[in-house]
Amino acid sequence: MTLENIRDLDDEIFEVMQINFHTAISTFSKVGLSNVGKAYTMFITKTNFIKNAIFDICENDDPYSANILFRSLIEHHLKYMFIFIRNTKEQNDNVGVEYYQYCDFSESIIIGKSWLDSWQILTPENEDKLYEVIIEKKPELKSFSKKEIIQKAKQFNYRNIVSFIKESIAEANSNYGWLDKIIPNYGDLSSYVHGGPLADKYLTYFGNENKRNKELLNICQLTFITANNLKQLLYLLLAELDKKQYSGSLRRIDFIIDEFNKTA
Question: Which string of DSSP letters, residue by residue, matches the chain?
Answer without folding.
Answer: --HHHHHHHHHHHHHHHHTTGGGHHHHHHTTT-HHHHHHHHHHHHHHHHHHHHHHHHHHTT-HHHHHHHHHHHHHHHHHHHHHHHHHHHH-SSHHHHHIIIIIHHHHHHHHHHHHHHHTT---HHHHHHHHHHHHHH-GGGTTS-HHHHHHHHHTTSHHHHHHHHHHHHHHTT---HHHHHHHHHHHHHHHHHHT-HHHHHHHHHTTSHHHHHHHHHHHHHHHHHHHHHHHHHHHHHHHHH-HHHHHHHHHHHHHHHHHHHHH-
